[in-house]
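Throughout our pipeline, every protein is held as a single compact record rather than as scattered files. The record that follows is passed on verbatim for readers who wish to inspect the format.
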Amino acid sequence: MSHVIVIGAGVGGLAATTRLAAMGHRVTLVEQAAQVGGKLGRDDIDGFLFDTGPSLLTLPQVLAELFGATGAPLAESGIDLQRLDIACRYRFPDGATVDLPGDMDAIPGALDAALGAGRGAQWSAFLTRAARIWDVTEQPFLRSPIDVGTMVRLARSLADVVTVAPWRSLRGIGARHLSDPRLRMLLDRYATYTGSDPRRAPAALATVPYAEQAFGSWYIPGGLYRLAEELVARAEALGVEVRLGTEVAEVLTSSTGVRGVRLTDDTVIDADVVVANADARVVYEQLLPAPDRATRAVARRVRRSTRSFSGFVLLLALDDAPSDQPHHTVLFADDYDAEFDAVFGRGGPPRPVHRPTVYISAPSDPAVAPESGSGAWFVLVNAPPHDPDGGTDWDAPGRRESYADHILDVMADRGVDIADRIRHRRIITPADLERRTHTPGGSIYGTASNSASAAFLRPANRSPVPGLYLVGGSSHPGGGLPLVMMSAEIVAAMIGPATSPPKVP
Protein backbone atom coordinates (compact mmCIF):
# COMPACT_ATOMS: atom_id res chain seq x y z
CA MET A 1 0.00 0.00 0.00
CA SER A 2 1.49 3.33 -1.03
CA HIS A 3 1.27 6.49 1.02
CA VAL A 4 -0.19 9.49 -0.80
CA ILE A 5 -0.12 13.05 0.52
CA VAL A 6 -2.74 15.39 -0.92
CA ILE A 7 -1.90 19.07 -0.44
CA GLY A 8 -5.03 21.20 -0.26
CA ALA A 9 -8.63 20.34 0.62
CA GLY A 10 -10.41 22.17 -2.17
CA VAL A 11 -12.95 20.13 -4.10
CA GLY A 12 -10.24 18.83 -6.45
CA GLY A 13 -8.14 17.69 -3.52
CA LEU A 14 -11.11 16.16 -1.71
CA ALA A 15 -12.20 14.31 -4.85
CA ALA A 16 -8.69 12.97 -5.44
CA THR A 17 -8.41 11.99 -1.78
CA THR A 18 -11.61 9.96 -1.76
CA ARG A 19 -10.86 8.28 -5.08
CA LEU A 20 -7.35 7.28 -4.04
CA ALA A 21 -8.48 6.05 -0.62
CA ALA A 22 -11.22 3.98 -2.26
CA MET A 23 -8.53 2.51 -4.54
CA GLY A 24 -6.63 1.23 -1.51
CA HIS A 25 -3.98 3.90 -0.92
CA ARG A 26 -3.13 5.24 2.50
CA VAL A 27 -3.88 8.96 2.16
CA THR A 28 -3.00 11.96 4.29
CA LEU A 29 -4.82 15.18 3.41
CA VAL A 30 -3.15 18.39 4.60
CA GLU A 31 -4.86 21.78 4.41
CA GLN A 32 -3.43 25.11 5.53
CA ALA A 33 -6.83 26.56 6.47
CA ALA A 34 -8.95 25.64 9.46
CA GLN A 35 -11.72 24.27 7.23
CA VAL A 36 -11.95 22.25 4.05
CA GLY A 37 -13.35 23.52 0.76
CA GLY A 38 -10.68 25.84 -0.63
CA LYS A 39 -12.39 28.28 -2.96
CA LEU A 40 -15.67 26.52 -2.13
CA GLY A 41 -15.73 28.28 1.22
CA ARG A 42 -18.41 29.17 3.73
CA ASP A 43 -18.87 32.22 5.94
CA ASP A 44 -21.32 32.36 8.84
CA ILE A 45 -22.46 35.86 9.75
CA ASP A 46 -24.80 35.84 12.74
CA GLY A 47 -26.52 32.69 11.51
CA PHE A 48 -26.60 33.71 7.82
CA LEU A 49 -24.68 31.13 5.77
CA PHE A 50 -22.85 32.14 2.59
CA ASP A 51 -21.10 30.04 -0.02
CA THR A 52 -18.04 32.12 -0.87
CA GLY A 53 -17.22 30.33 -4.11
CA PRO A 54 -19.37 28.53 -6.69
CA SER A 55 -23.10 29.16 -6.40
CA LEU A 56 -24.37 26.49 -8.79
CA LEU A 57 -23.44 23.00 -9.88
CA THR A 58 -23.43 21.87 -13.50
CA LEU A 59 -22.77 18.44 -15.05
CA PRO A 60 -24.31 16.59 -12.09
CA GLN A 61 -23.34 13.28 -13.68
CA VAL A 62 -19.70 14.02 -12.78
CA LEU A 63 -20.63 14.32 -9.10
CA ALA A 64 -22.68 11.13 -9.32
CA GLU A 65 -19.68 9.31 -10.83
CA LEU A 66 -17.45 10.51 -7.98
CA PHE A 67 -19.83 9.28 -5.30
CA GLY A 68 -20.44 6.00 -7.10
CA ALA A 69 -16.69 5.33 -7.31
CA THR A 70 -16.01 6.04 -3.64
CA GLY A 71 -18.89 4.49 -1.71
CA ALA A 72 -22.61 4.95 -1.41
CA PRO A 73 -24.19 6.47 -4.54
CA LEU A 74 -25.17 10.11 -4.64
CA ALA A 75 -28.85 9.32 -4.06
CA GLU A 76 -27.95 7.74 -0.71
CA SER A 77 -25.60 10.50 0.42
CA GLY A 78 -26.39 13.70 2.28
CA ILE A 79 -26.44 15.60 -1.02
CA ASP A 80 -29.92 16.42 -2.33
CA LEU A 81 -29.55 18.08 -5.72
CA GLN A 82 -32.29 20.50 -6.78
CA ARG A 83 -32.59 21.66 -10.37
CA LEU A 84 -33.31 25.38 -10.73
CA ASP A 85 -36.50 26.24 -12.63
CA ILE A 86 -34.93 29.58 -13.59
CA ALA A 87 -31.25 29.13 -14.32
CA CYS A 88 -30.58 32.86 -14.29
CA ARG A 89 -32.23 36.24 -14.76
CA TYR A 90 -30.32 38.46 -17.18
CA ARG A 91 -30.78 42.22 -17.35
CA PHE A 92 -29.25 43.83 -20.44
CA PRO A 93 -28.05 47.45 -20.83
CA ASP A 94 -31.19 48.43 -22.78
CA GLY A 95 -33.34 47.30 -19.84
CA ALA A 96 -34.56 44.08 -21.45
CA THR A 97 -34.79 41.22 -18.95
CA VAL A 98 -35.03 37.50 -19.56
CA ASP A 99 -35.57 34.71 -17.03
CA LEU A 100 -33.65 31.89 -18.70
CA PRO A 101 -35.41 28.60 -17.89
CA GLY A 102 -33.55 25.65 -16.45
CA ASP A 103 -35.33 23.45 -19.00
CA MET A 104 -33.39 23.66 -22.27
CA ASP A 105 -36.53 23.11 -24.35
CA ALA A 106 -38.15 26.22 -22.85
CA ILE A 107 -35.22 28.56 -23.56
CA PRO A 108 -36.13 29.55 -27.16
CA GLY A 109 -39.61 30.68 -26.16
CA ALA A 110 -38.27 32.71 -23.25
CA LEU A 111 -35.74 34.46 -25.49
CA ASP A 112 -38.37 35.22 -28.12
CA ALA A 113 -40.72 36.67 -25.49
CA ALA A 114 -38.05 38.85 -23.88
CA LEU A 115 -35.84 39.86 -26.82
CA GLY A 116 -38.01 39.47 -29.92
CA ALA A 117 -39.08 36.83 -32.38
CA GLY A 118 -36.30 34.70 -33.85
CA ARG A 119 -33.85 35.14 -30.96
CA GLY A 120 -34.65 31.70 -29.60
CA ALA A 121 -33.94 30.08 -32.95
CA GLN A 122 -30.61 31.91 -33.17
CA TRP A 123 -29.57 30.67 -29.74
CA SER A 124 -30.73 27.12 -30.48
CA ALA A 125 -28.70 27.05 -33.70
CA PHE A 126 -25.67 28.22 -31.80
CA LEU A 127 -26.14 25.51 -29.14
CA THR A 128 -26.37 22.90 -31.88
CA ARG A 129 -22.93 24.06 -33.03
CA ALA A 130 -21.67 24.04 -29.43
CA ALA A 131 -23.00 20.50 -28.94
CA ARG A 132 -20.78 19.30 -31.79
CA ILE A 133 -17.75 20.85 -30.09
CA TRP A 134 -18.77 19.13 -26.84
CA ASP A 135 -19.00 15.75 -28.57
CA VAL A 136 -15.50 16.17 -30.02
CA THR A 137 -13.79 17.49 -26.88
CA GLU A 138 -15.44 15.93 -23.82
CA GLN A 139 -13.61 12.61 -23.73
CA PRO A 140 -10.19 13.46 -25.22
CA PHE A 141 -9.78 16.84 -23.48
CA LEU A 142 -11.94 17.08 -20.38
CA ARG A 143 -11.77 13.48 -19.21
CA SER A 144 -8.27 12.49 -20.35
CA PRO A 145 -4.73 13.69 -19.67
CA ILE A 146 -3.70 16.45 -22.04
CA ASP A 147 -0.51 15.75 -23.96
CA VAL A 148 1.06 16.17 -27.37
CA GLY A 149 -0.43 12.88 -28.53
CA THR A 150 -3.94 14.10 -27.85
CA MET A 151 -3.33 17.25 -29.85
CA VAL A 152 -1.85 15.26 -32.73
CA ARG A 153 -4.82 12.88 -32.81
CA LEU A 154 -7.22 15.80 -33.04
CA ALA A 155 -5.14 17.46 -35.75
CA ARG A 156 -5.34 14.29 -37.86
CA SER A 157 -9.12 14.64 -38.11
CA LEU A 158 -9.91 17.58 -40.35
CA ALA A 159 -13.59 17.34 -39.42
CA ASP A 160 -12.77 17.60 -35.70
CA VAL A 161 -10.44 20.53 -36.27
CA VAL A 162 -13.14 22.36 -38.22
CA THR A 163 -15.64 21.64 -35.45
CA VAL A 164 -13.42 22.96 -32.66
CA ALA A 165 -12.23 25.90 -34.82
CA PRO A 166 -9.08 26.64 -32.81
CA TRP A 167 -8.41 29.72 -34.95
CA ARG A 168 -11.63 31.38 -33.80
CA SER A 169 -12.41 33.14 -30.50
CA LEU A 170 -15.55 32.72 -28.45
CA ARG A 171 -16.57 36.22 -29.53
CA GLY A 172 -15.85 35.25 -33.14
CA ILE A 173 -17.97 32.11 -33.14
CA GLY A 174 -20.77 34.07 -31.50
CA ALA A 175 -20.65 36.71 -34.22
CA ARG A 176 -21.16 34.01 -36.87
CA HIS A 177 -24.34 32.70 -35.25
CA LEU A 178 -25.85 35.51 -33.18
CA SER A 179 -26.98 38.76 -34.76
CA ASP A 180 -28.59 40.18 -31.60
CA PRO A 181 -25.94 41.97 -29.50
CA ARG A 182 -27.71 40.84 -26.34
CA LEU A 183 -27.27 37.20 -27.28
CA ARG A 184 -23.60 37.88 -27.98
CA MET A 185 -23.33 39.49 -24.56
CA LEU A 186 -24.95 36.42 -23.03
CA LEU A 187 -22.35 34.23 -24.73
CA ASP A 188 -19.47 36.51 -23.69
CA ARG A 189 -20.48 35.95 -20.10
CA TYR A 190 -19.44 32.30 -20.29
CA ALA A 191 -15.80 33.27 -20.83
CA THR A 192 -15.88 34.51 -17.25
CA TYR A 193 -16.37 30.90 -16.10
CA THR A 194 -12.66 30.49 -16.83
CA GLY A 195 -11.64 34.02 -15.84
CA SER A 196 -11.04 34.89 -19.49
CA ASP A 197 -11.67 37.56 -22.12
CA PRO A 198 -14.27 36.43 -24.73
CA ARG A 199 -12.42 38.36 -27.43
CA ARG A 200 -9.41 36.08 -26.93
CA ALA A 201 -10.82 32.91 -25.37
CA PRO A 202 -11.08 29.97 -27.77
CA ALA A 203 -14.32 29.01 -29.48
CA ALA A 204 -14.14 25.69 -27.61
CA LEU A 205 -15.57 27.52 -24.59
CA ALA A 206 -18.90 27.45 -26.41
CA THR A 207 -19.23 24.09 -24.65
CA VAL A 208 -19.78 25.92 -21.35
CA PRO A 209 -23.27 27.31 -22.10
CA TYR A 210 -24.14 24.08 -23.89
CA ALA A 211 -23.23 21.93 -20.88
CA GLU A 212 -25.01 24.25 -18.45
CA GLN A 213 -28.22 24.32 -20.47
CA ALA A 214 -28.21 20.71 -21.67
CA PHE A 215 -27.55 19.19 -18.24
CA GLY A 216 -29.12 21.84 -16.04
CA SER A 217 -28.19 24.24 -13.24
CA TRP A 218 -28.36 22.67 -9.79
CA TYR A 219 -28.29 23.75 -6.17
CA ILE A 220 -27.65 21.85 -2.93
CA PRO A 221 -30.05 22.85 -0.10
CA GLY A 222 -28.00 24.22 2.75
CA GLY A 223 -25.50 25.63 0.27
CA LEU A 224 -22.89 24.13 -2.02
CA TYR A 225 -20.48 23.91 0.91
CA ARG A 226 -22.43 20.79 1.83
CA LEU A 227 -20.48 19.11 -0.97
CA ALA A 228 -17.16 19.75 0.80
CA GLU A 229 -18.61 18.51 4.08
CA GLU A 230 -19.87 15.28 2.52
CA LEU A 231 -16.59 14.64 0.72
CA VAL A 232 -14.45 15.05 3.82
CA ALA A 233 -16.83 12.82 5.76
CA ARG A 234 -16.47 10.19 3.06
CA ALA A 235 -12.68 10.55 3.10
CA GLU A 236 -12.55 10.01 6.86
CA ALA A 237 -14.84 6.98 6.54
CA LEU A 238 -12.32 5.56 4.07
CA GLY A 239 -9.54 5.98 6.65
CA VAL A 240 -7.98 9.21 5.38
CA GLU A 241 -5.98 11.23 7.92
CA VAL A 242 -7.20 14.83 7.60
CA ARG A 243 -4.87 17.49 9.01
CA LEU A 244 -6.31 21.01 9.00
CA GLY A 245 -4.28 24.09 9.87
CA THR A 246 -1.26 22.33 8.39
CA GLU A 247 0.79 24.17 5.79
CA VAL A 248 3.29 22.58 3.42
CA ALA A 249 6.50 24.52 2.90
CA GLU A 250 8.22 22.22 0.41
CA VAL A 251 7.72 19.13 -1.69
CA LEU A 252 10.75 16.96 -0.99
CA THR A 253 12.38 15.16 -3.89
CA SER A 254 15.24 12.79 -4.58
CA SER A 255 16.94 11.63 -7.75
CA THR A 256 14.06 9.22 -8.35
CA GLY A 257 11.13 11.56 -7.66
CA VAL A 258 9.09 12.80 -4.71
CA ARG A 259 9.80 11.48 -1.24
CA GLY A 260 7.38 13.52 0.89
CA VAL A 261 6.73 17.02 2.14
CA ARG A 262 8.16 19.37 4.73
CA LEU A 263 5.69 21.37 6.75
CA THR A 264 6.19 24.96 7.89
CA ASP A 265 7.02 23.67 11.39
CA ASP A 266 9.81 21.58 9.78
CA THR A 267 7.97 18.31 10.31
CA VAL A 268 8.69 15.89 7.44
CA ILE A 269 6.04 13.46 6.19
CA ASP A 270 7.32 10.71 3.94
CA ALA A 271 5.25 9.72 0.92
CA ASP A 272 5.42 7.72 -2.28
CA VAL A 273 3.11 10.11 -4.15
CA VAL A 274 2.18 13.78 -3.68
CA VAL A 275 -0.94 15.30 -5.21
CA ALA A 276 -0.95 19.11 -5.12
CA ASN A 277 -4.37 20.76 -5.08
CA ALA A 278 -2.68 24.15 -5.12
CA ASP A 279 -2.21 26.89 -7.67
CA ALA A 280 0.25 25.65 -10.28
CA ARG A 281 2.32 28.78 -9.91
CA VAL A 282 2.71 28.13 -6.18
CA VAL A 283 3.69 24.52 -6.84
CA TYR A 284 6.38 25.33 -9.37
CA GLU A 285 7.72 28.54 -7.85
CA GLN A 286 7.44 27.90 -4.11
CA LEU A 287 6.99 24.22 -3.28
CA LEU A 288 9.76 23.01 -5.59
CA PRO A 289 12.68 25.23 -4.56
CA ALA A 290 15.37 23.35 -6.52
CA PRO A 291 13.70 22.20 -9.74
CA ASP A 292 15.41 20.41 -12.59
CA ARG A 293 15.48 21.66 -16.18
CA ALA A 294 12.12 20.16 -17.16
CA THR A 295 10.42 21.61 -14.10
CA ARG A 296 11.95 25.03 -14.71
CA ALA A 297 10.54 24.97 -18.24
CA VAL A 298 7.03 24.35 -16.90
CA ALA A 299 7.51 27.07 -14.29
CA ARG A 300 8.49 29.57 -17.00
CA ARG A 301 5.41 28.70 -19.04
CA VAL A 302 3.13 29.12 -16.04
CA ARG A 303 4.79 32.41 -15.12
CA ARG A 304 4.36 33.79 -18.65
CA SER A 305 0.69 32.89 -18.86
CA THR A 306 -2.00 35.50 -18.20
CA ARG A 307 -3.53 35.22 -14.76
CA SER A 308 -7.29 34.91 -14.64
CA PHE A 309 -9.11 37.78 -13.07
CA SER A 310 -10.29 37.71 -9.49
CA GLY A 311 -13.51 38.78 -7.82
CA PHE A 312 -14.76 41.44 -5.44
CA VAL A 313 -17.47 39.98 -3.20
CA LEU A 314 -20.19 41.33 -0.94
CA LEU A 315 -21.88 39.01 1.53
CA LEU A 316 -25.17 40.69 2.40
CA ALA A 317 -27.47 39.57 5.19
CA LEU A 318 -30.82 41.13 4.31
CA ASP A 319 -33.99 41.86 6.22
CA ASP A 320 -37.18 41.67 4.15
CA ALA A 321 -35.31 40.35 1.12
CA PRO A 322 -37.11 40.91 -2.24
CA SER A 323 -39.43 37.94 -2.72
CA ASP A 324 -39.28 38.00 -6.53
CA GLN A 325 -35.52 37.55 -6.79
CA PRO A 326 -34.48 34.34 -8.59
CA HIS A 327 -31.58 32.24 -7.41
CA HIS A 328 -29.18 33.84 -9.90
CA THR A 329 -29.20 37.28 -11.49
CA VAL A 330 -26.73 38.93 -13.87
CA LEU A 331 -26.90 42.70 -14.31
CA PHE A 332 -24.81 43.31 -17.42
CA ALA A 333 -22.37 46.20 -17.77
CA ASP A 334 -23.16 48.99 -20.21
CA ASP A 335 -19.78 48.40 -21.88
CA TYR A 336 -18.64 44.79 -21.53
CA ASP A 337 -15.42 45.36 -23.50
CA ALA A 338 -14.41 48.14 -21.12
CA GLU A 339 -14.85 45.68 -18.26
CA PHE A 340 -12.46 43.16 -19.79
CA ASP A 341 -10.01 45.92 -20.68
CA ALA A 342 -9.97 47.04 -17.05
CA VAL A 343 -9.48 43.67 -15.36
CA PHE A 344 -6.78 42.56 -17.84
CA GLY A 345 -4.97 45.91 -17.88
CA ARG A 346 -5.52 47.06 -21.43
CA GLY A 347 -5.26 50.80 -21.88
CA GLY A 348 -3.59 51.13 -18.49
CA PRO A 349 -2.76 48.98 -15.47
CA PRO A 350 -5.30 46.40 -14.25
CA ARG A 351 -7.97 48.36 -12.38
CA PRO A 352 -11.40 48.04 -10.77
CA VAL A 353 -14.24 48.24 -13.26
CA HIS A 354 -16.17 51.49 -12.94
CA ARG A 355 -19.56 50.10 -13.99
CA PRO A 356 -19.12 46.32 -13.80
CA THR A 357 -21.40 43.41 -14.52
CA VAL A 358 -22.93 42.33 -11.21
CA TYR A 359 -23.62 38.69 -10.35
CA ILE A 360 -26.12 37.98 -7.57
CA SER A 361 -26.76 34.64 -5.90
CA ALA A 362 -29.89 34.85 -3.74
CA PRO A 363 -30.90 31.32 -2.76
CA SER A 364 -34.46 30.87 -1.54
CA ASP A 365 -33.34 28.46 1.15
CA PRO A 366 -34.40 28.66 4.80
CA ALA A 367 -31.28 26.71 5.74
CA VAL A 368 -29.02 29.67 4.91
CA ALA A 369 -31.17 32.56 6.21
CA PRO A 370 -32.16 32.29 9.89
CA GLU A 371 -35.45 34.20 9.84
CA SER A 372 -38.55 34.20 7.65
CA GLY A 373 -38.23 36.83 4.94
CA SER A 374 -34.49 37.31 5.40
CA GLY A 375 -31.90 36.56 2.74
CA ALA A 376 -28.25 35.62 2.41
CA TRP A 377 -27.05 37.26 -0.82
CA PHE A 378 -23.68 36.69 -2.45
CA VAL A 379 -22.77 39.55 -4.82
CA LEU A 380 -19.75 39.28 -7.13
CA VAL A 381 -18.09 41.54 -9.67
CA ASN A 382 -15.09 40.69 -11.82
CA ALA A 383 -11.96 42.38 -10.49
CA PRO A 384 -8.25 42.52 -11.25
CA PRO A 385 -5.98 40.41 -9.04
CA HIS A 386 -4.36 41.98 -5.99
CA ASP A 387 -1.09 43.48 -7.22
CA PRO A 388 0.23 46.42 -5.16
CA ASP A 389 3.31 46.79 -7.37
CA GLY A 390 1.91 46.84 -10.91
CA GLY A 391 -1.86 46.88 -10.69
CA THR A 392 -4.51 47.31 -8.01
CA ASP A 393 -3.72 47.39 -4.31
CA TRP A 394 -6.92 46.09 -2.77
CA ASP A 395 -5.52 46.74 0.71
CA ALA A 396 -5.20 50.48 0.05
CA PRO A 397 -6.93 52.48 2.81
CA GLY A 398 -10.62 53.02 2.11
CA ARG A 399 -10.67 51.17 -1.21
CA ARG A 400 -12.74 48.16 -0.16
CA GLU A 401 -15.48 50.15 1.56
CA SER A 402 -15.79 52.80 -1.13
CA TYR A 403 -15.94 50.21 -3.92
CA ALA A 404 -18.54 48.20 -1.98
CA ASP A 405 -20.70 51.33 -1.68
CA HIS A 406 -20.25 51.94 -5.39
CA ILE A 407 -21.37 48.39 -6.29
CA LEU A 408 -24.56 48.85 -4.26
CA ASP A 409 -25.21 52.08 -6.17
CA VAL A 410 -24.70 50.27 -9.49
CA MET A 411 -27.16 47.58 -8.42
CA ALA A 412 -29.74 50.21 -7.49
CA ASP A 413 -29.31 51.94 -10.87
CA ARG A 414 -30.08 48.59 -12.51
CA GLY A 415 -33.24 47.97 -10.52
CA VAL A 416 -31.99 46.01 -7.50
CA ASP A 417 -31.96 48.52 -4.64
CA ILE A 418 -31.43 46.72 -1.34
CA ALA A 419 -29.16 49.16 0.53
CA ASP A 420 -31.76 49.91 3.22
CA ARG A 421 -32.36 46.18 3.87
CA ILE A 422 -28.77 45.26 4.80
CA ARG A 423 -28.34 43.99 8.35
CA HIS A 424 -24.76 42.78 7.92
CA ARG A 425 -22.21 43.36 5.18
CA ARG A 426 -18.93 41.54 4.75
CA ILE A 427 -16.46 42.39 1.97
CA ILE A 428 -14.05 39.91 0.39
CA THR A 429 -11.46 41.48 -1.91
CA PRO A 430 -8.93 39.78 -4.20
CA ALA A 431 -6.35 40.41 -1.46
CA ASP A 432 -8.56 38.51 0.98
CA LEU A 433 -8.93 35.67 -1.52
CA GLU A 434 -5.16 35.51 -1.86
CA ARG A 435 -4.81 35.19 1.90
CA ARG A 436 -7.64 32.69 2.26
CA THR A 437 -6.63 30.34 -0.55
CA HIS A 438 -2.90 31.02 -1.05
CA THR A 439 -3.65 31.82 -4.69
CA PRO A 440 -1.39 34.53 -6.18
CA GLY A 441 -3.37 37.75 -6.46
CA GLY A 442 -6.58 35.92 -5.63
CA SER A 443 -6.88 34.78 -9.25
CA ILE A 444 -9.90 32.51 -9.21
CA TYR A 445 -8.99 30.18 -12.08
CA GLY A 446 -5.19 30.27 -12.10
CA THR A 447 -4.46 31.14 -15.72
CA ALA A 448 -6.90 32.69 -18.17
CA SER A 449 -7.82 30.99 -21.44
CA ASN A 450 -6.87 34.05 -23.45
CA SER A 451 -5.52 32.35 -26.56
CA ALA A 452 -6.51 29.67 -29.04
CA SER A 453 -4.41 27.05 -27.26
CA ALA A 454 -4.66 28.19 -23.65
CA ALA A 455 -7.72 26.10 -22.81
CA PHE A 456 -5.82 22.99 -23.92
CA LEU A 457 -2.41 23.87 -22.47
CA ARG A 458 -3.03 24.40 -18.79
CA PRO A 459 -0.38 22.81 -16.56
CA ALA A 460 -0.58 19.05 -16.95
CA ASN A 461 -1.82 16.80 -14.16
CA ARG A 462 1.42 14.80 -14.25
CA SER A 463 4.39 17.00 -13.36
CA PRO A 464 7.94 16.44 -14.65
CA VAL A 465 8.85 15.19 -11.15
CA PRO A 466 8.01 11.48 -10.85
CA GLY A 467 5.31 10.95 -8.26
CA LEU A 468 4.09 14.57 -8.21
CA TYR A 469 0.65 15.32 -9.65
CA LEU A 470 -1.46 18.46 -9.93
CA VAL A 471 -5.20 18.60 -9.45
CA GLY A 472 -7.68 21.46 -9.30
CA GLY A 473 -8.69 24.57 -11.19
CA SER A 474 -5.24 25.84 -12.18
CA SER A 475 -4.31 22.56 -13.89
CA HIS A 476 -5.95 20.52 -16.65
CA PRO A 477 -8.85 20.59 -17.52
CA GLY A 478 -9.60 23.86 -15.68
CA GLY A 479 -11.73 25.55 -13.06
CA GLY A 480 -15.29 24.99 -11.91
CA LEU A 481 -16.71 22.20 -9.78
CA PRO A 482 -17.21 19.56 -12.49
CA LEU A 483 -13.83 20.17 -14.10
CA VAL A 484 -11.86 19.91 -10.85
CA MET A 485 -13.68 16.64 -10.13
CA MET A 486 -12.66 15.47 -13.61
CA SER A 487 -9.06 16.42 -12.85
CA ALA A 488 -9.22 14.23 -9.74
CA GLU A 489 -10.49 11.31 -11.81
CA ILE A 490 -7.62 11.79 -14.29
CA VAL A 491 -5.01 11.90 -11.51
CA ALA A 492 -6.43 8.86 -9.73
CA ALA A 493 -6.30 6.88 -12.98
CA MET A 494 -2.69 7.96 -13.54
CA ILE A 495 -1.67 6.78 -10.07
CA GLY A 496 -3.68 3.59 -10.32
CA PRO A 497 -5.05 1.30 -7.62
CA ALA A 498 -3.13 -0.08 -4.69
CA THR A 499 -2.67 -3.81 -4.59
CA SER A 500 -5.53 -4.50 -2.16
CA PRO A 501 -8.30 -1.91 -2.36
CA PRO A 502 -10.47 -1.69 0.75
CA LYS A 503 -14.17 -2.32 0.81
CA VAL A 504 -15.69 1.13 0.43
CA PRO A 505 -18.37 2.14 2.93
About this structure: The radius of gyration is 22 Å.
